[in-house]
Design brief:
By secondary structure, the chain is α+β, with helices and mostly antiparallel strands. It contains nine helices and 32 strands. The strands form five sheets. A ten-stranded mixed sheet has the order 23-24-25-27-26-28-29-30-31-32. Strands 1, 3, 4, 6, 9, 10, 12 and 13 form an eight-stranded mixed sheet that branches.
């Protein structure tokens, strides 16, 4: 009996002293970016800007204890994303999603940083994240004194009553929403070569001019120019002038620093407001284009002939209806030339009549993940087809996806053959063409309206669709990937070669700048990020101005590939008319 009582007392004491503390990572200072639209514990996530970048914060631990540390991260594109955790400068360990794990691609997952606990005294400690790769995506850090605390499953939140939020452990020099607003003295895409471009920086805290601290700034230009500086904040606007010698863009970056010259975040609002990543362009319609292959049209004529050798046969299975009950959902597999069929989910309004509906085909961005059955219509008031970029089978077991993902690998980086028909993107383009052939065969199609839409890699595929199938009547291609591929090597434009096809093989056959010349339908480019150097503005502009059709584009200032800062300025172009205001 005494032993039983002692055991109960022991367990009660353990329960009383067990504690879980959650660190809200988007409050951290540093150079990581805040990812939007990722609602989880504490809100948004942080994304590293490059390997080795860090984010840090000082927080108060209410009690002494041995803490087990866990990290909540999100995989991206089937690639490995990890970060290291430091406390008071000491490495605790690293965690993150595992490479090519199909069961949590694009989902949050918890992982222990290390098996053994770290002993921390009550009081203030500095916690730091260091990225092990570009685009590490971290949502939260958990410190638990309970060795056996059960971490939630994929994309699940911690139980609401299972943790406390760690409070800030230092008085900040600035207690408010920090912002460094950067504007140009005129429309940022309206300059000519030789004209001075003024970048005007206005540091504010809660909307009022700051009078202390520093602004760190830098610029790099497509013509090879670059400069950087550090300016004290005095309550006045700060200006930096740049002159471009050749048609192209300049990328301008700014960051707020405290009086000790350490990067600042924001205690309220979006920490990315404390930094800026944007730019301006000169004579943007005259940006040089990479040479087009002499046999470009012959190559694609041959590809279409190869596709025609495969009969148009599809397996289309109804698998449910959308949550509102208004659309039937089908999983579809279409026989196709190349290594895999064209696959995807299709939604059609319930009871649709023959010849009554437009069609919209949506194309996927870069990455490898399990395509999930839609819960709502792929496209409202239309036949919608969400094409899988890789032709993977739908609704298969984990073993199938794990094997396929390893087979596909980081597909944009492993082109070796000189033959463009051996390129991974050749099969992808075949699946785009075959899907368009299939949807045009549907009896519900109105025989008039056929749209292709996507962003990034999906934007590239949308341009392919409109180029290779003249029945496409509208193309929407946002932040178009694969534009003017290799121009940085030929002409010195900024940005890296994001589609690393063999230089003697496939580059020009898949480049959007060459396909754009063949597009006849209305085309919209909803976003060109002036701070996007995954899809650099010089390349997307060359693609846009190669379009010989009705067209419209919108430039976003202070917008990278993944992030659009709230309230950022936008600038529009109709057809080839560039406003000079």
């Amino acid at each position: 009996m005494k032993r039983l009582i002692a055991s109960v007392v022991y367990l009660c004491c353990m329960a009383a002293f067990s504690a879980n503390y959650l660190l809200d990572v988007e409050k951290m200072n540093g150079t990581w970016q805040v990812g939007q639209g990722r609602d989880a514990e504490g809100g948004a996530m942080l994304m590293s800007t490059a390997k080795g970048t860090d984010a840090w914060i000082k927080v108060v631990f209410p009690e002494e204890g041995k803490y087990y540390v866990s990290l909540r991260s999100m995989s991206f594109g089937g690639e490995w994303r990890r970060a290291s955790v430091y406390v008071d400068g000491k490495l605790i360990g690293a965690a993150g999603d595992e490479k090519f794990k199909s069961d949590h691609s694009y989902e949050f997952v918890w992982a222990k940083v290390r098996r053994n606990p770290v002993k921390l005294a009550a009081g203030v400690h500095e916690v730091k994240l260091v990225s092990a790769c570009p685009n590490a995506r971290i949502d939260a850090i958990l410190f638990s004194t309970d060795r056996d605390f059960k971490l939630p499953g994929l994309s699940e939140k911690l139980p609401e009553n299972s943790y406390s939020i760690l409070e800030l452990g230092e008085k900040r020099e600035f207690e408010g929403e920090l912002s460094v607003n950067v504007s140009t003295d005129r429309n940022p895409v309206s300059y000519h070569c030789g004209e001075p471009i003024s970048f005007i920086m206005t540091p504010t805290c809660d909307g009022k001019a700051m009078d202390k601290g520093f602004v760190s700034w830098s610029w790099t230009a497509d013509d090879g120019g670059k400069a950087s500086g550090l300016e004290p904040i005095t309550g006045k606007q700060l200006a930096v002038k740049v002159v471009l010698k050749n048609p192209g863009f300049v990328r301008f970056k700014a960051r707020l620093l405290n009086s000790e010259k350490n990067p600042l975040g924001s205690t309220r609002g979006n920490p990315m407001l404390a930094s800026f990543d944007g730019g301006a362009g000169a004579d943007i319609a005259d940006i040089k284009a990479v040479p087009e292959p002499d046999d470009f049209d012959a190559f694609w004529t041959k590809a279409k002939s190869e596709l025609a050798q495969v009969p148009l046969r599809a397996d289309s299975e109804k698998v449910g209806t959308t949550e509102d009950g208004e659309y039937d959902i089908y999983k579809v597999s279409i026989d196709c030339a190349g290594p895999r069929p064209a696959t995807g989910y299709m939604t059609i309004p319930v009871g649709a009549e023959a010849g009554s509906l437009p069609i919209e085909v949506t194309l996927a961005g870069y990455g490898v993940s399990v395509q999930k059955r839609p819960t709502k219509a792929v496209s409202r008031n239309a036949i919608g087809f969400a094409l899988n970029a890789h032709g993977m089978k739908l609704e298969q077991n984990k073993e199938y996806y794990d094997k396929l993902f390893k087979e596909i690998g980081p597909y944009a980086l492993h082109e070796k053959s000189d033959n463009p028909a051996d390129s991974y993107f050749y099969g992808m383009a075949m699946r785009v063409m075959r899907t368009l052939q299939f949807v045009k065969s549907l009896p519900e199609w109105n025989k008039r309206d056929l749209a292709a839409t996507g962003g990034s890699q999906g934007g590239l595929q949308a341009i392919w669709a409109a180029s290779l199938d003249q029945d496409v009547t509208k193309c929407t291609s946002s932040i178009t990937w694969g534009s003017n591929i290799g121009s940085w090597k030929l002409f010195g434009y900024q940005g890296r070669d994001n589609v690393s096809l063999n230089p003697n093989g496939g580059r020009g056959y898949f480049d959007s700048v060459n396909h754009a010349k063949r597009v006849k339908c209305q085309t919209v480019v909803p976003r060109i990020g002036l701070g996007d150097y995954t899809c650099p503005p010089s390349g997307v502009c060359r693609m846009y101005f190669n379009l010989k059709c009705p067209k419209h584009a919108t430039f976003y200032q202070n917008s990278s590939h993944s992030v659009i800062i709230p309230g950022c300025e936008t600038f529009e172009i109709d057809n080839d008319e560039i406003p000079r205001d």
